[in-house]
Design brief:
The protein has 2 domains: 4-238, Rossmann fold, CATH 3.40.50; 245-368, OB fold (Dihydrolipoamide Acetyltransferase, E2P) (Beta Barrel). It is 24% helix and 33% strand. The protein contains 9 helices and 20 strands. It starts with a strand and ends in a 9-residue tail after the last strand.
Length: 377
């Protein structure tokens, strides 16, 4: 299929007053052959611009884009052997589904038999048989999106590009289309690059995900590696619902063991806590003793034990808000200067303004350098 290599890619836009906006800033990314890569980040981080640069819809300011070892900088979009699915479907409203699928193939002067064969294959694969004789206005949002995917599919490109294709759909339809696109990738074995701001899409669909912020690739890894071992504070705070809890404090060494102490600010809503870190971290974090650090802990790694003797550091806090989500509850609690979230089973009976003692799983904790934002361990 296709292997894509992006090296030092940048794109600078100029505003009317002559200022510069760096939409993409020295991005590096490798998309392996037959891989489903998801580019995820907040609005304005440069992910859609990166996709447009690969597609040839914008020209890069610097860097190179290679497809199977061939540099495609400057090549017209039609010569890049790729197909793109847009956020707004971009279907021709006056054409039927069949005509929308056939349009690009006719421009490439394929025979009628070949066009009909490819459309039949796409219709079977995407359940579009009932849509071929109808115009886009007569179709549901999900049908229009499948038709847009089908138009890319009949091209049989080396690379598929998806630019937030599900953002205009309601929640149930988004969940259905996530499954359909993921299953399509499994059946075709094609190389796909999928752009989204929705981390649920990123975590559930991608073989690997690449997190972007301010035009820079922050981390590229498998979804679970990004979730469990974020490379920096931005990734830790962006990936996860709720996101990773971040506590600012100081690291000390006691009897050869690293301890995290929350920075006191005189808050009366809870008590400043000290957390003894996992023994295996001591040698790695020792150089940061006496220095400010940020402790990261996922909500599921904080619990309310049945008995206080159940092991693990105990932290006193006051619940401020409780979200009931069916199979689980999210408890927003305060200790010292920090508000954190604990993900607990639905059976827990916790009320607002209740004083609780939480157990923190120190073995799951991550530490970050507040000066650079990078992970220490």
């Amino acid at each position: 299929m296709a292997r894509v290599v992006i090296e030092n890619l940048s794109k600078i836009f100029r505003n009317p007053r002559g200022g510069e906006i760096k939409a993409v800033d020295g991005a590096n990314l490798v998309i392996e052959d037959r891989e489903f890569m998801v580019l995820v980040g907040p609005s304005g981080c440069g992910k859609s611009t990166t996709l447009r640069l690969i597609a040839g819809l914008d020209e890069p300011t610097g860097g190179t884009i290679s497809l199977d070892g061939r540099a495609i900088n400057g090549a017209p979009p039609k010569d890049r052997d790729l197909a793109m699915v847009f956020q707004n479907h971009a279907l021709y409203p006056h054409m039927t589904g069949h005509e929308n699928l056939a349009f690009g193939l006719k421009l490439r002067k394929l025979s009628r038999d070949e066009i009909d064969r490819r459309i039949a294959e796409a219709a079977e694969l995407l359940d579009l048989k009932d849509c071929l004789k109808r115009r886009p206005a007569e179709l549901s949002g999900g049908q229009r999106q499948r038709l847009a995917v089908g138009r890319a599919l009949v091209r049989k490109p080396a690379l598929f590009l998806f630019d937030e294709p599900l953002s205009n759909l309601d929640a149930p339809m988004r969940a259905q289309m996530r499954r359909e696109i993921a299953q399509l990738h499994q059946r075709l074995g094609s190389t796909m690059l999928y752009v989204t701001h929705d981390q649920v899409e990123a975590m559930t669909m991608g073989d690997r995900i690449s997190v972007m912020q301010s035009g820079v690739v922050q981390q590229t890894a498998s979804p679970m590696e990004v979730y469990e071992k974020p490379a920096n504070l931005f990734v830790a705070g962006f990936i996860g619902l709720p996101p990773m809890n971040l506590f600012h404090g100081q690291l000390t060494m006691k009897d050869g063991t690293a301890c995290f102490c929350e920075r006191p600010v005189g808050s009366e809503s809870g008590e400043v806590f000290e957390l003894r870190m996992d023994s295996g971290m001591a040698s790695v974090v020792a150089p940061f003793a006496g220095k400010p650090v940020v402790l990261g802990l996922r909500p599921e790694d904080i619990r309310v034990p049945l008995q206080e003797s159940g092991g693990g550091p105990m932290v006193q806090a006051v619940s401020e808000f409780v979200e009931h989500l069916g199979p689980e509850i999210h408890v927003h609690a305060r200790t010292g200067e920090h508000v954190f979230v604990a993900r607990l089973p639905a059976g827990e009976r916790i009320a607002p303004r209740q004083k609780l003692r939480f157990a923190f799983d120190a073995s799951r904790a991550r530490l970050f350098d507040p000066a650079t934002g990078k992970a220490i361990v």
